[in-house]
Amino acid sequence: MSTITLFTRALQRGLIAGLAAATVLSGCATGPRYSPPAAPDVTSYTGPATTGSATAGATTVRPATTAASTGEVAGNTALSSSEQVTVSDGAQSVIMGSAPRRDWWRLLNSPQLDEVVTLALRNNVSLEAARATLAAAEQRAKAARGARNVQVDVAGDIGRRKYGSDFLGPLASTFPTFSAYSAGPAVSYDLDIFGATRHRIDQADALTAYNREQLRAARLQVIRDTVTQALRIASLRAQIEVVDRVLDADGKTLELVQAARRLGVVSDIDVLTATSQRDGDRALLPPLYQELDTARDALAILVGQAPAKWAAPDFALDQFNVPRELNLVVPSELVRARPDIRAAEAELRAASAAVGVATADMYPHITLSSGWAESGLLSGGTTSGWSLIGGITAPIFHGGALSAQRRAAQDAYQAVFAQYQLVVLSSFGQVADTLHALDHDAQALQTHETELASAQRTVELTQQGYRVGNAGILQVVTAEREQQLAEIGLVQARTQRVADTAGLFLASGDGA
Asked: Tell me, what DSSP letter sits at residue 26?
């Protein structure tokens, strides 16, 4: 029977024996078995309306029909009321128990925004970095899983040797100097009886899951920033249009005052007052244009282009329409919907695996190894040899290092668990804040619309009074100033309502 055959059979017997021992001792595997944290035991994002808050009902919250039929959303009627505030953009309702659509930004009905978001998701540099980071984590997890397989290597050596009398007795010193070599495969297998390899694999898989959620979070961030900058451009352009109209009105007022001065009806003070009003309003434009240029540059970077090579669209605020119905997952589902919560949960799993690794390091480490080699003299024939070895390394005394490492891993797990709880609580707070904001936005929008209508009427009456001598120029300037502030306030209120609508989608973890 050949040497290779004997080696193969011996290796098979050794591996079978080792695997049998591993099966018998599998109950010795140490360390915790990870289980995900339970879903939070809450049924609503917000509490009862408090005194001093905006009138309840500007935004209603009601359960979705499909979710309500399961009984999951009973009591999820935060901010609900039979009344609704009527505003130009219409009332909104939040549908509990139904997940938002993935491409929620399309509900804003801006084709320009759709194109830019698609471009950003395709070309954004931070997303490319997150994808590469995830790919690296996947390969590290693959490498970790490889440790549980049989390891095969090839080894060889060559050298010139001379034996002394301490080798094979006194006559060995008479052996001539010779050149020899050996070469052959070496096989090893870690029985992993106490689970160190298993925990390392679980840790690598958890870190892969963490990086996968980081990619989802990065995608959400790109969507958030793209929508924010597009909305900022639209809002600034609308404010610039308001100031342009104000400057046009200032010019007409100045012409009116100058004509009255030529007739001797008013004094130079009136002319100076009207001129000062116009010049002061002109000073409003440079800061607005600076913010507009900054927003355009930021949007270019988001789509992966240099500002000199790509021009942002001229977004218009009236092209952004808020949807009437907003879908929102129930609280118990939020932990599975938001990437930041899922990433924190993956970190918790990795911390649990680290406890398992530290625990397994306190126990013996058993391996099987075998080798076969062809060896001989360079000037002569060759011979074959094989070996089958079982090895064990058991810690005896490490100065308390191993137990300290285990306690450190346990403490680190508790810290990560606390951080996970904080992320969950913060996420619930973000959703609650956004629900409140939507309720207040409708109230603010109605208030600004009423304010603007009153300011416009005041300007008309004041200008008519000035023409017939019943009002002074200061009254006209004051009325126009109030109208300008009301128009800008309305633009900002409309912008905020769109931003908070997008914020609810983002707070739900949608779009990733």
From this structure: G
The secondary structure of 332-381 as a DSSP string is HHHHHH-HHHHHHHHHHHHHHHHHHHHHHTTS-EEEEEEEEEEEEETTS-
Q: 48-62, 276-290, 450-464: which range is least confident on average?
A: 48-62
pLDDT of residue 74 exceeding 50: no
Amino acid 215: pLDDT: 96
Helix (H, G, I), strand (E, B) or coil at 276: helix
* Residue 52 phi, psi dihedral angles, 5° rounding: 95, -10
Helix 196-262 vs helix 473-507: crossing angle, to nearest 10: 160
Q: Is the pTM of this model over 0.90?
A: no
Contacts of 283 (CB under 8 A, 6+ apart): none
Q: What is the CA radius of gyration of the chain?
A: 37
The pLDDT of residue 416 is: 95
Whether residue 139 has pLDDT greater than 50: yes
Structure tokens at 225: 């920033």
Do the beta carbons of residue 389 and residue 14 sit within 8 Å?
no
Which three-class secondary structure state does DSSP give residue 170? helix
Residues 6+ apart with CB under 8 A from 7: 370, 372, 384, 386
Report how far apart the first and last C-alpha atoms of the chain are (Å, whole number): 63
Residue in this structure with the two tokens 């499909």, named with its chain if needed: 66
pLDDT at 373: 75
**CA proximity to 119, closest of 313, 277, 292, 251:** 313
Mean pLDDT of 179-196: 83
- pLDDT of 371 reads 76
Q: What is the DSSP string of 205-269?
A: HHHHHHHHHHHHHHHHHHHHHHHHHHHHHHHHHHHHHHHHHHHHHHHHHHHHHHHHHHTTSS-HH
Distance (Å, whole) CA 453 – CA 441: 18
Secondary structure of residue 180 in the 3-state scheme: strand
Q: Dig out the tokens for 318 from the structure.
A: 């009236």
Give me the mean pLDDT over the 470-480 stretch: 82
The dihedral through the CA atoms of 27, 28, 32, 33 has a sign that is negative
Please compute the mean of the pLDDT values over residues 268-283 and round it to a whole number.
90
